[in-house]
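F.,

This is the one I mentioned.
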């Protein structure tokens, strides 16, 4: 048997990260120490849980069976903790949100600042990464996405639509050929995503416009916005970003107007967690309000 909840927690981290080094970073444990703990767990169970190789730790059949039970126990612990927590009108504890960097840079800072102000005992961590988060591996408590996943044990709710337009810096527009139609874009430098690093088809804006060459590219929205601000060229910009870039102007607004949506994604096991559910509701409402306010000022 597993000795205690701490052993179970360590096992879950190694199983999800599939390496001692990856799990050690999360747990803040030396990999060698973690390896000894896992060896002790296997000895106590009388079963081999992992196949060790230079590429990592892969679960054996016994490990897969234990993982299912361990995740069930983890969820029961989360629910029990939420249910017996001291009653309060305020949220508390740590919550980690995964988000694409456009949302993470231009919406979540002010939304989360207001949540923290109303809930002083709440700790919010924003992980901004240009990729899809794996909630099953508990990389985050919840994630914001630009499309609704259709696979996995997930609960998905649409937060809000948002708008995007072509934009360029005033300095670039003043020194370049006029942009009157989309055909004129052929004579201008484009700023956008690195084509082979677009992690969601909803972000493939320029292909949608028939543009294939991107002289200035990044996998980060904030980097793209800064490229545009520095006169790098013309690119697709979220309307809600424009409040932070007063020297950037939308172009061809009547000809190019894109709409996308943000979705809040949670693991199905967290559906009964009242604390996370309340936070999710307040976060979604905060994002909706912020998008409406910022877009109204463009």
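My design for it:
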């Amino acid at each position: 048997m597993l000795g205690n909840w701490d052993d179970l927690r360590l096992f879950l981290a190694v199983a999800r990260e599939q390496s001692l080094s990856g799990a050690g970073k999360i747990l803040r444990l030396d990999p060698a120490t973690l390896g000894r703990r896992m060896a002790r767990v296997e000895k106590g169970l009388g079963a081999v849980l992992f196949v060790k190789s230079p590429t990592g730790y892969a679960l054996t059949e016994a490990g897969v069976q234990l993982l299912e039970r361990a995740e069930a126990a983890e969820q029961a612990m989360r629910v029990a903790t939420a249910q017996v927590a001291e009653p309060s009108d305020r949220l508390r504890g740590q919550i980690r949100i995964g988000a694409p960097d456009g949302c993470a840079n231009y919406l979540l800072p002010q939304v989360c600042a207001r949540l923290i102000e109303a809930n002083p005992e709440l700790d919010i961590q924003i992980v901004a990464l240009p990729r899809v988060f794996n909630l099953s591996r508990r990389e985050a408590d919840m994630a914001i996405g630009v499309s609704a996943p259709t696979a996995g044990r997930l609960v998905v709710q649409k937060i809000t639509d948002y708008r995007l337009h072509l934009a360029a810096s005033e300095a670039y527009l003043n020194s370049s050929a006029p942009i009157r139609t989309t055909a004129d874009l052929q004579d201008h430098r484009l700023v956008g995503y690195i084509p082979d690093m677009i992690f969601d088809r909803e972000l493939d804006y320029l292909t949608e416009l028939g543009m294939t060459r991107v002289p200035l590219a990044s996998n980060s929205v904030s980097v793209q916005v800064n490229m545009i601000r520095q006169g790098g060229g013309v690119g697709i910009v979220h309307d809600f970003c424009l409040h932070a870039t007063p020297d950037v102007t939308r172009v061809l607004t009547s000809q190019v107007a894109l709409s996308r949506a943000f979705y809040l994604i949670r693991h199905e096991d967290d559906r009964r967690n009242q604390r996370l559910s309340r936070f999710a509701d307040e976060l979604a409402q905060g994002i909706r309000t912020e998008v409406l306010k910022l877009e109204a000022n463009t």
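The two ends are 61 Å apart (CA to CA).

Talk soon.
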